[in-house]
Amino acid sequence: MSGPDRSRLPIRRETFAGVVGRTLDGSRPDWNLIEHPRPPGGAPNVLLVLIDDAGFGNPSTFGGPIRTPTYTRMAATGLRYNRFHVTALCSPTRAALLTGRNNHAVGFGSVGEFAGGFPGYSATLPRDCAPVPRILRDNGYSTAAFGKWHLTPDGQQGPAGPFDRWPNGWGFDYFYGILGGGSSQWDPCLAENQKIIGTPEEFYDEQHPYYFPDAMADRTIEWLHGVRAQDAHKPFFVYYSTGCSHAPHHVAKEWADRYKGQFDEGWEALREQTFARQQELGVIPADAELTPRDEAFPAWSDVPDNVKPFYARQMEVYAGYSENADHNVGRVIDAIDDLGELDNTLILWIWGDNGASMEGSVTGSFNELTMQNGLPLTDEMQLQLAERYGGLDAWSTSLMAPHYGAAWAWAGNTPFKWGKQVGSHLGGTRNPLVVHWPARITEEGGLRTPFSHVIDVAPTILEAAGIPAPDTVDGIEQEPLHGTSFVASLSDGAAPEHHTQQYFETIGNRAMYKDGWWLAMKTERIPWLLTPEALAPYAPGVWDPDSGPAELYYLPDDFTQAKDLAAEHPEKVDELKDLFWREAERYKVLPLLATLSTFFGMVPPLGGETSYEFRGDVQNVMPGMIPRIYNHSYTITADLVVPDGGAEGVIVAEADHLGGFTLYVKNGRLTHTYSMMGVFVFKQVADEDLPSGDVTVRMEFRADSAKPATGGDVALFIGDRQVGKGRMDHTVPVRFSGYSGMDIGRDNGGVVDRSYEREKPFAFTGTVERVVFDVKPHLSGEDEQQLHTAEQHGQAAHGLSA
């Protein structure tokens, strides 16, 4: 019996097969008209789990030090895949995962924050590449996404949309989570469906604090129960994408304390221990070699003794954070089991969207965005700053936004070289995959070794469901899927390898895989260095991509990329180089280094808007959408109504004490506080009280010059009368926060100025009529001339959020 035409979506409604008369007399209904599309019989539920910023050598399931009992349980009754690959960066992997196409081809050559003017870097999904949630939904699945999204461009994360770039627009019936790349786990700025809902109310409950990973599991279970309460048989597709283990590394102290003392021997010892367990488990071959330490990573023996406890605590927190993620995924799996549906649920669980992140730099950081804002910190500075915010015991709390040191990430990618951002090497591109589906997997606890890639997941899901990739969606002819299904390997360990060729590219780090050979072409830039000096060799007209070194590996004989064969096979090097350029052109990888175009002055035009007005109670303006106040002069003006007896509270606040600004009234005085990533904090207070009635206040920042991180003078005004002044020697060049929003009339979540922390969110007790930002203010003639001269030279901000 033929079914509906699934090659064109949406599926067309069946032709009416009843009878319609002039009255009900003689008319016969056709009940198929009110039926929604249904998937083929036996189509499984699907749970797709993605862990963030983690490495091949992190989970104990693959020999790592982090206890992952749920992951191991799924592997013991399912399958481990040890040659599964991702793209070495967050958004690109997610786009490839959900579309079944190469990441550049769907506009995600970089992260969503760096949407650019080239097709492969637009951060905009082409309409001819319908994602798998849309395909499943139109074929009768209930679909939901929970957790980290990171596929909505920075400037589109507000009530004006467009919402086709939000999860609902990608085919999810329901979404609960964060739109950006990283978030506090204690006070995230949450989104639900097509609305930013901001900081959860539970954040203010000190007895029962909010924790995002717990809430993700709660919401997922609640959604599953709701679907089953309505429809006992409709299959579901759940995309469960944890914020863990992306920085900031936030977890309750008791989880981190489970690992007390376990990393005191350092990262080299951890790599050796992990490598031995991997060989014992058989997840790497017995003849595999442990790759050596690159000189970019310090030796543990060179770390001063007084600093070693600081480094060890970084890894203890990361491990506890990761174990908690395993625990909460386990709660969701247990809920599916309680529904009696685990046997026919296809679980694909990827431990890492790229290799473990080295973006904490050598020292690690109490604040993950210090690196992105080009603010290097020494060990001693880190220790002093950690003490400022509560000491090592506070490393995992909301007082800090911590990231561990790069050498811990290197250890997390055991046995491979490098990690996140390095698309040329396996440390950035090979991650664990566990597949669990009792209804189809006959060899429990098996190991699968064929080369596979994140673009293979979507075709695997579709084949498992018996649903074809559509030819047209909404009347638009579709780009064929680029991946290949590995369903056959679920029941046949000897199934042939179908994915035999794949390019990789991340921020200029490139690789070409074909028939076992892997050509690695890494830039000389160290992933955590984004200083002007580090970027200068890659400026347009300076960098020649063909001039750098190339390494060649034959992976069937060299699992870890330990034996460079480039000198022995120059003809293979040339062959794979040529193939890479052909693939790069085909899949919109070009121009190389488009991710860095912002740093070389290719910034989106300001347009005609230089003044931004916020009226009423506007809250949770996402950090990529605040007015462009960086690196030049600006003013903030507010019209207030102050009742008799005065008012207190926040007029406007962006982000928190680890990077942000706030204009507020306390003890009757207008006050401006500015945090330069929590390292430098500047405050200016008015000399007189705020009067009652209709009052206009203003803060002026007069930049020394229009350049990254410029210093400048601050002046406070009531009306046209100056009432305060001060100096800021440094300002934030790129971004205050990766997640915390801007609020009018209050300071949601973590506060900017901790002097009003006990009163948070410290809502203004008068009325804030409007707040206006002017990013091109009319200052003195000298100031204007400085700005004009600098802008003519096209100076751009520097930094990278990945």
Short structural description:
This protein has 16 helices and 30 strands.
Description:
- This protein is α+β, with helices and mostly antiparallel strands.
- It has a ten-stranded mixed β-sheet, sandwiched between helices.
- A hairpin with a 2-residue loop joins strand 14 (472-473) and strand 15.
- The longest helix is centred in the middle third of the chain and has 31 residues, at 308-338.
- The protein is globular.
- The chain starts with 7 loop residues before the first strand and ends in a 10-residue tail after the last helix.
- Residues 783-802 have low confidence and may be disordered.
CATH-level-4 superfamily name of the largest domain = Alkaline Phosphatase, subunit A
How would you state the average pLDDT, rounded?
Answer: 94
Structure class: alpha+beta
Strand order, sheet with most strands: 8-7-6-5-9-2-10-11-3-12
Q: Calculate the terminal CA-CA distance, rounded to whole Å.
A: 50 Å
Number of helices: 16
CATH class bucket of the largest domain: Alpha Beta
Please outline the major beta sheet.
Answer: 10 strands, mixed
* Helix residue percentage: 10-25%
Per CATH, the architecture of the largest domain is 3-Layer(aba) Sandwich
- CATH topology assignment of the largest domain: Alkaline Phosphatase, subunit A
Number of strands: 30
Break the fold down into its secondary structure elements and pairings:
Layout: E1 8-9, E2 45-51, H1 69-76, E3 79-81, E4 84-85, H2 90-99, H3 132-138, E5 142-148, E6 174-178, E7 190-192, E8 195-198, H4 212-230, E9 236-241, H5 253-257, H6 267-281, H7 308-338, E10 345-351, H8 369-372, H9 379-388, H10 406-412, H11 426-429, E11 433-436, E12 446-448, E13 452-453, H12 457-465, E14 472-473, E15 476-477, H13 488-491, E16 501-506, E17 509-514, E18 517-521, H14 532-535, E19 551-554, H15 570-586, E20 611-615, E21 634-642, E22 649-656, E23 659-666, E24 669-676, E25 680-689, E26 693-703, E27 712-718, E28 721-728, E29 742-744, E30 767-774, H16 781-792
Parallel strand pairs: 1-14, 2-9, 2-10, 3-12, 4-13, 5-6, 5-9
Antiparallel strand pairs: 3-11, 6-7, 7-8, 10-11, 14-15, 16-17, 17-18, 18-19, 20-30, 21-26, 21-30, 22-23, 22-29, 23-24, 24-25, 26-27, 27-28
Family: Belongs to the sulfatase family.
Pfam families: Sulfatase
Protein name: Arylsulfatase
